[in-house]
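Note to self: keep these together.
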Amino acid sequence: MAARAKPSPRLAVEGGVPAPAPIYRSVTLLIALGVFGAAVLWVGLIVLLGGEPWMFPFSAPAPWLFLALVPSVIAILLAVRGIALWALLFAPVSVWLVPTGLATIAVVLVALWTVRGIRSQWAAHDLDCVIATAAAHGLPVLVVQHVAGKARARKTTDTTQVQVRDVDTGELSTARVWGPMTTGTTFVRQGMNVIAQAPPGADAELRRWVERQNRRSAAANAA
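Structure:
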């Protein structure tokens, strides 16, 4: 006798909030990286012409001075990944070679600001997808109130038991779902399958996105 097939989970539905563009398409970040590249080129030309670029607090002879670019590269890579603390620690170290160091600080600040905007829009996009998916499939929107078990024990299991609150009714219940979960996550599920989910704090990001769109529409209509 053939085994009963498991029902396939419903698909998530895209909402009205678009997914953000990748970070490498950020015009502001590309301009900042261009300034950094120009600073590196300028330092290279000074060295080729026999000069000494501005270094602080002490100078280093060529080609050793180019070791000062290592903190710059590390800081920029960390900033693009959104690791703010380490990026902000490495950025001041890069000022050893002053021209490229100042450009590095500018790139790090722009990159962190860009990453923050992308993460914010992703959160709004994900929550919008959760709401659209729930409406399309007639499923409730749930918010995780509590995650059962200790963190170390949860890493060894494929499922997570959570206490959830229905956004519409406020009713509390328990559920077991595939994969990890954190308190504050908003999601839609079919059985144990999570169809769509949004990270904690996504409601505030979606609210900000809607407010920005309303301001832009009001400004366009006023013009």
